[in-house]
Structures are given as C-alpha cells and as structure tokens.
Design goal:
The protein is an alpha+beta fold and 939 residues long. 34% of the residues lie in helices and 23% in strands. It has four domains: 216 residues, Sandwich (Immunoglobulin-like), CATH 2.60.40; 169 residues, Roll (C8orf32 fold); 192 residues, no CATH class; 120 residues, Serine Threonine Protein Phosphatase 5, Tetratricopeptide repeat (Alpha Horseshoe).
Length: 939
C-alpha cells in the first residue's frame, strides 16, 4: 500500500488477469462484452459531443477483475490533435495483461483499422513514479496516431486485467462516473459477476452521505448464471455542496464494487502479511539494535520512541509495488539490509522491533487522501493508502507512523491526522476513529523578540527563531545541503513576514538538531511594528489569531442546514512574541481578548499574555484540522467568532506619549537610534547588491528627518536598480535640501522612464511654479486633468493648491468650484477651498462654513481642522485657532503646517514653547517657512 490515492480513473488499478505479462496482447473483445452503438461520423456536426463513446465494463469472476474500456473521441481542433495524437495506456504486468481489441480512425464513411495495418503499441520500461519515491512496476504502452485530422473520431477498445494473489480471491473495482452537464454520445458503466458472488456496490455520485431510502439500481439476471448492473452516463448532475462541507458529504464521480462482506473481513484478510514471528533472527543486526534499545532504558515509552526513531531515521522511504508489493510488505531483515522501504515495510519493521521488546502493537491501515471518506466507503483494501502502527503502553493507545521523520519521546502521544483507522487483526476489526488533538510539540514553533526601547515611533531590532518538527523539519533537513544564503533568504523571508510584516533581516541561519529531531530557521533584523493613533492613543495590534480568523459558512439552503463545517487541513503553529517597551513599560496597558476559548470555530487555540518588567509577552498557538463544527453549533460559533474579532488584543501606549517629532528630537540628542542604524548597516552588509537594503534605511532616515542621509541611500539604490519611483523619491530629497536643479534632473529622468509618474509630475509642477513658471506648471497638471477618470479630482486639488500657493487664488477657487459642482459634499474639496480662502484672507465667513461642513462629513479631519485654524487666525480668533490646532495635532501629531501656525501664534503671544513648535515644523518640512511667507505669515 503506497501513500497515493486508491481512486483511479476508470478503475484500471483494480482489474484482474489470468495470464499476466509484460507484452501487449491483441485480441478480439471477449464474448461477454456488450457492444456500444456504432458512430456515424457523417451525421456529426460542431455541436456533437466530443466524447462519442465512453463505455466501461467490468467482469468480476474467480478472483479476477477484467476491465474493458471503449472510447470514441472526436478531434475538434489542432490543439486536440496534439494532445490526443499519442495514446498512453498503463498496466501492472505482474498482475495482469493489457489487451488491445480495437484501434480505428473514423473519417467520413471510412473506417481505418490501424491494427489491421500493422500499428502496434510500444512498451516503455521507465517507472512512472520515481519522482514520488515509488517503484510500482507499472508499464506504459503508447502509440502515435499518424495521419490524424481535425474531424476524425479515434475509436479504441482495450482491456486491462488484474488478479492480485494478496487479495486471496476477493475482488474490488472502481469505475468513473461522468456526471451531467458533461455530454456524451453514448456512455455506460456495466458490472458483470457470477450469481452467488456476494458483490456489494456503491455510487458516490450523490455524495457519500446519501439521503436515507435513496433508490438503488437492481441487478438483472443473465443467462449463464451472471448478474448485471448497468449505469447510463452521464450520471445525474450532483447536488451542489458548500466548499466547507466535510469530504464525506461531497459527491464523487465514482462507482465502487467489492466482494468484502465487511471491514472485519478486510482486517482479517490483511493481518497475516504483518505477522512478526521469527522476523528478527537471534544474533542478526536487527537483534543487535533491539539489544541496544533495551539496554538504554527500561521504560517501554522510551524504547518505543527509540524504535520509532530508528525506523524513521535509518530507513529511507521508497514504495515498492511490484509483484504483490502493493499489499504485502518486504521482510524486516530485507528492509534493514536495503535501508529503504515503504509504509508497509516500515510498519512491519517497527512491529517486529516492538514485539521483540514485549510491547503490544498491531498494524492499522488509514487513508492519507480520503480522510473521513473512509467511513462512507465500501469495505475493501482500496479504501486505504497508508499503514501505521497502533501500539498500547500502560493502557494508552499510541499511533506511530514510521514514514514520518523527527519523532522523539515528546511526540509519542501525537495522533496523525488520518481521522479513521482499521486495525489489522487475525480475528478481524472494525473502523476506529483517531482521537485528533494538537501534537505535543508545535509543528512550527516561532519565538520573536522585538526591542522597542528606543521608542515606538521607530523600527525595532528583532530576533527570530522558527523551530520545526515532524514532516516540516524533514523537508527542511533535506534542503539543507543545497541552500546558499540567497535561497535561505527566500526560505526564511516569508516566515518572518508572516509574523512581523515587512522587515530587513541579517544573520540568517538554518540549524539541524538530530537529537531533538528539529530544524530551526533563525535571523536578526529590523522590523516595523504597526503602532497607530487610535482614539487619541497609540495602539499596536497583536491579535494575529483573530485577525486571520474567518468563519462564514453558508448554510442558507435548506439542503445544507445539517452539514457541518470541515475541520480543514492539518496545520499547527505557535508564536511567542516578546516586546521590550520604552521607559520600562511605564504607562503601557493591554486591551482586548487576553484569553481565548479552547476551541474557536474549527481551531484549537491557546493564549497567554503578560505585561511585566517592561516586557510584553504574547504566547499564541492555533491548531487546524482537529475539530469539525457540528451543524447545530454553526450559529453559536459564528457569534463567538464575531465577539472575538470585535475585541482584538492590542497594546496601548501611555496617554502622555509624546508626538513623534519630540521623540525624534530626544533620540537625536541621546543617541538611542544607534542600535537601529547598526541593524540597517548589518542588513545592507548581508545584501549589498539589493536595492531594497538601501531604500529601507532611506525610509527610516526620512522618518527621522535626516534628508541628507536618505539622499545617499537613495542614490545607491538607484545605482543598483534605477526606477521612476526611486528617481522621484530622490528628487524630493534634493528639493527638501534646496537643490532644485538636481531635483529637476531626477524628475526629467523619472518621466523618461515613466511619463505617467504621478509623483514626478506633481513635484515638477511645484518646482516650476516656485521658479516662476506657473503657466508651465499648470500645463503639466491640466494635461493630467484632461485625462479624466478616477484621478481627475486629485489633480484638480493639486492644481488648486499650486495656484493658491503661487499668487492665483481666484484661479484656484475657479478650479475648485468646477470640481465641487461635479462632486458636491466632498470633504476634501471643501477643505481645499477653505484653505485657499484662509491662506489668502478671502471670504473668511464662507471659508469657515466650508471647513465646518467638511469636518461634519468626515472623521479623518486633521487637515480640515488645520484649514479652519488658518481661517480663525485670519479672523484674529486666536483661542479658536489654537483649539483647532491642538485637535489637529492630536489626530496627526506631525502635521507640519499645524505645528508652524501654532508656533506663529505662540510667538505672537510670547509663549515659551513657540520656538520649539517652529523648529519641529522646519525639521519635518524644511520648506514650510517659505510657504507661510508666501501667505504673508511670519513668526
């Protein structure tokens, strides 16, 4: 049994044979085959079905299954000629034959018999599944259909036979049901078996959980003592199912037939192949391994863990399906000698080791791919594709999988996510549910430390460690030898991004710990915690569990109301995040869900949160693929999820948290930014040829208003990867530093690369206007406005702002009047008109109405409050202006125009903090004083 699907197209994997062989045979169809209707190609038009014949007939007799298939396919396009021009057929020569009955091309009134012309199939000796570590003995016979034309019909009929001695006379077959709305000229599935053979059959076309009392077809008695079942194709269109329905509820286009009476018969029939008596000879190498384990510990759990590690780590996986290998394992001594084996071989080896140590254990078959479908299947070995060990120690059941990797003592109680198992016992057994649960060690265990002690307004130095166990560790371990630093960056980058978002990393490592059975990815770097102003306080979202939680099952249809929500695929992750806060954490608090229910939707979750000694610690774990949500719990679970998502966990900064410009001033003075700059330097050293390394540091330098430093990094990034975006960004740096000529040169270069660069066009127009070429600036912007579309409004606002700033307030208001007529009630337009009037001391009462109305229309009102403060200033209502400026700075603490106007007012009232506000505004925007001078406003 291999880790591959037991359900295969047309049921060819379960066909049987009387005379197995590796040569293709050519014979007439057997007499028991019922002929399909002929095809009259002259009567076919473009609307005729592509598949004119799809006929499957299976005869089950004396332990042999004979599968006959005929297909007649119409070639409707040149592309189809390419796809169908070579015909491949696969079979297992150790268990049966491939017999060709017919190979014809139907063209008009012609019937070209290719077999009569001497056409023969070529047998390919190559194994088809080497990439999947499988040797199944399957051969492929192919034939090229020469001279095929569009409009031809290829009519081929063949049989594949199979008789597997491992089944001891039992028979199983699977056939494909083509459901509507697919179109067929003629379609059929036919079963034929001897009267008295206890054959069961089941169609899954309506879903494996079929309505009670659903009508079942009845067999017809034929002459000669045969029974016949016939199913016309296409089968009825299956009922729609919600995407999140468990697999057992979803229709499968399959018909299955089996002679097994029940699951106990399957269990009893397979059990003898896993007998271990005499499997480990005294004095043999395996006996030595047993002695070593026994000497190492008296604890049976430790011994079981050591035996499991031996099988997992010392025997590589390779499926062997030749001869009887699909069901019969190779001997333990052979497995140990070869040092490879499939799930059957590994299970038998593990059983032999455990039995030698006196530990009760038995094999159990499971399905990797079919999950909870197994319980709805007909009893047969075909329901399974994998075998593991069911051991019992101190009354506790253990499920041990020799094909996994990295299992250690800490993992011994883990339950693999196979849902259902069938123990194989000489007396027979029934299906047994697996008690799914989170594993003892997280499959992915992530620990992150963030150093935010310099201040929450700055990036944070981080360390990252992701420790993997089980299959994830095995996958990484296999890659270790071929990973260079660039590949390691590509591997670890998404892991860090998933927990921290954007980052700049260095010191990246991959470490293997064979003793613990783990592989660890680690890195250090710079991250960007997402602190943001919310309700007057800085807040940091922490709740990745609820943020990524989506539970919205649709059960509106009456037919869906009883369908539970699937458990989903297995996934298990723990994230422990530690954040070192500024000022020893003084004044920092938590809000939101500090605890979570043990089960949330179809997840198992666990959370602990602590805030002590200046460190915030969040420990979150979530495991998927363990729990299913019953239908009668869906409404309650949906409400519970909504409650959790409505109150996400956040860290809250102190109420007296200073604005960023104050923090920047203080940080520059006490050199607390040195570790961050050191981190950026290491990130650049780790990736010196990556432009992002420099643009990331440029972003930080821009945030601390080091425009000269940002300029240098942007220049290096442009050397490595020039782009219109970077050139426009560097032009902004040149402009802030008063180097207009260089800024213009960069903007011209940016527009040469991208003539539609919005940033470049906007800044170029501003510089032209500042230099007195207002008409040229306006022409640039008018050209963008003339394009219309969604961006028109933004360009109108830009033009109005430029005209107002450079002495054309009437023209600015005219532009805004036109825009407002097209979009009345737009708060941004009202704000711009208020600003133009306020800065030019025009129609102040009307300006006041515009700003007040705009404030009423939007919650994002920092800019509008700033504009209304300007109007109050012009009206000499300085207390009102200060009230609005304080409110604007509460919402947007680094709004340079608000800081500058507040400094102007403070200067006039001789307030002691006037120079501080003015300096902050100039630090943020070096051109702010010039702009206010144009408005006639000076400190």
């Amino acid at each position: 049994m291999s880790r591959r699907s037991a359900l295969v197209v047309v049921g060819l994997s379960m066909a049987g044979v009387a005379h197995a062989g590796d040569k293709v045979q050519y014979q007439a169809a057997p007499a028991w085959v019922a002929s399909a209707p002929g095809i009259d190609v002259t009567q076919l038009n473009d609307s005729a079905p592509v598949m004119q014949i799809f006929d499957q007939q299976h005869r089950l007799e004396a332990g042999q299954v004979w599968s006959y298939v005929e297909t007649g396919m119409r070639m409707v396009s040149p592309q189809m000629l390419t796809q169908a021009g070579t015909l491949p057929l696969q079979w297992d020569p150790s268990k049966g034959d491939l017999i060709i009955h017919k190979l014809q091309i139907l063209r008009g009134n012609e019937r070209i018999d290719l077999l009569a012309k001497g056409t023969r199939f070529t047998v390919l000796q190559r194994e088809q599944k080497l990439e999947q570590f499988a040797l199944d003995g399957t051969l492929t016979a192919t034939v090229a259909l020469e001279g095929l034309r569009v409009g031809d019909v290829v009519d081929v009929a063949f049989s594949i036979t199979r008789k597997d001695p491992a089944l001891a006379g039992q028979m199983v077959t699977i056939a494909q049901l083509v459901p509507a709305p697919a179109k067929l000229g003629f379609g059929r599935v036919r079963l034929l078996w001897k009267d008295g053979v206890p054959l069961q059959w089941r169609s899954y076309a309506a879903g494996t959980v079929a309505p009670a009392g659903a009508p079942q077809p009845q067999p017809t008695i034929l002459p000669g003592g045969y029974r016949e079942l016939s199913f016309p194709l296409p089968s009825p269109k299956p009922a729609e199912m919600p995407d999140d329905a468990p697999p057992r509820f979803k229709p499968l286009p399959l018909l299955e037939a089996s002679t097994y009476a029940d699951w106990a018969a399957v269990s009893k029939g397979m059990a003898p192949y896993y007998a271990t008596a005499g499997a480990i000879a005294p004095g043999s190498p395996l006996a030595g391994e047993v002695a070593r384990i026994v000497a190492a510990s008296k604890d049976p759990r430790v011994r079981a863990a050591m035996a499991l590690q031996l099988v997992q780590d010392q025997v590589r996986y390779l499926f062997r399906g030749m001869d009887t290998g699909n069901y019969v394992p190779q001997k333990p001594a052979e497995t140990w000698s070869l040092r490879y084996g499939d799930c059957k071989a590994k299970t038998l080896l593990l059983l032999a080791l455990l039995h030698e140590m006196g530990i009760a254990a038995e094999p159990a078959v499971v399905s990797v791919q079919m999950s909870d479908l197994v319980q709805a299947r007909l009893p047969s070995p075909a329901a399974f594709d994998h075998v593991i060990v069911r051991a019992t120690i101190d009354g506790k059941t253990l499920w041990l999988d020799g094909t996994q990797g990295g299992s250690r003592l800490a993992d011994l109680d883990d339950v693999p996510p196979f849902v259902t198992a069938l123990p194989l016992r000489p007396e027979g057994a029934t299906l047994e549910p697996l008690p799914l649960q989170p594993p003892g060690r997280p499959a992915q265990d992530i620990a992150v430390t963030l150093d935010s002690t310099p201040g929450i307004d700055f990036p944070a130095r981080f360390t990252f460690r992701a420790t993997y166990t089980g299959g994830m560790a095995e996958g990484l371990r296999g890659l270790r030898a071929q990973i260079d630093d660039e590949k390691l960056k590509q591997l670890i980058g998404p892991q860090i991004n998933g927990v921290l978002g954007a980052n700049s990393s260095f010191d990246r490592k991959l470490e293997d710990d064979p003793k613990a059975g783990t592989v660890t990815l680690s890195a250090s770097g710079i991250a960007y915690p997402d602190w943001g102003l919310d309700r007057g306080r800085q807040r940091l979202p922490l709740d990745w569990t609820s943020n990524n939680l989506d539970f919205s099952p649709n059960r509106a249809r009456p037919a869906w109301k009883a369908i539970p929500v699937t458990r989903g695929g297995f996934a298990d992750m723990r994230v422990v995040k530690r954040i070192r806060l500024p000022d020893g954490g003084k004044g920092y608090t938590l809000e939101g869900q500090q605890t979570l229910p043990a089960t949330l939707a179809n997840l198992r979750v666990a959370r602990s949160v602590a805030l002590a000694e200046g460190v915030l610690t969040l420990d979150d774990r979530r495991t998927a693929g363990v729990d299913e949500v019953p239908a009668d719990r869906i409404a309650a679970v949906r409400a519970e999820v909504a409650r959790v998502k409505a109150n996400p966990l956040k860290a809250v900064a102190p109420a007296n948290q200073p604005p960023r410009w104050q923090t920047v001033q203080a940080a520059r003075a006490d050199n607390r930014l040195a570790p961050i700059l050191e981190g950026y330097a290491k990130a650049i050293a780790a990736d010196p040829d990556d432009a992002d390394s420099y643009t990331n540091r440029a972003w930080f330098l821009e945030r601390i208003y080091d425009h000269a430093g940002a300029l240098a990094d942007l220049s290096k990034a442009i050397e490595l990867a020039p782009s219109a975006e970077l050139l426009a960004r560097r032009a902004g740096a040149f402009d802030r530093l008063g180097q207009e000529d260089k800024a213009i040169a960069d903007l011209d270069a940016a527009l040469a690369l991208d003539q539609n660069s919005d940033d470049a066009i906007g800044l170029l127009a501003t510089i032209k206007a500042r230099r007195g070429a207002l008409d040229e600036a306006r022409a640039l912007l008018d050209e963008r406005i003339a394009l219309g579309g969604d961006e028109k409004l933004g360009w109108q606002i830009t033009l109005a702002n430029l005209l107002g700033d450079y002495g054309k307030p009437d023209d600015a208001l005219a532009v805004l009047e036109e825009a407002i007529a097209a979009a009345p009630g737009n708060a941004t337009l009202l704000n711009q008109r208020c600003w133009v009037r306020g800065t030019h001391n025009l129609a102040l009462e009307a300006a006041l109405k515009d700003c007040t109305k705009g404030i009423e229309l939007t919650q994002d009102n920092a800019a509008i409050l700033d504009s209304r403060a300007m109007v109050y200033f012009r009206m000499n209502r300085l207390p009102d202006a200060l009230t609005d400026l304080d409110a604007a700075l509460l919402a947007s603490p680094d709004q340079a125009s608000s800081l500058y106007l507040r400094g102007v007012i403070a200067k006039r009232s001789k307030a002691p903090d006037a120079d501080r506000y003015l300096a902050a505004a100039k630090m943020i925007d070096p051109l702010i004083a010039d702009r206010f001078t144009r408005y006639g406003i000076k400190p």
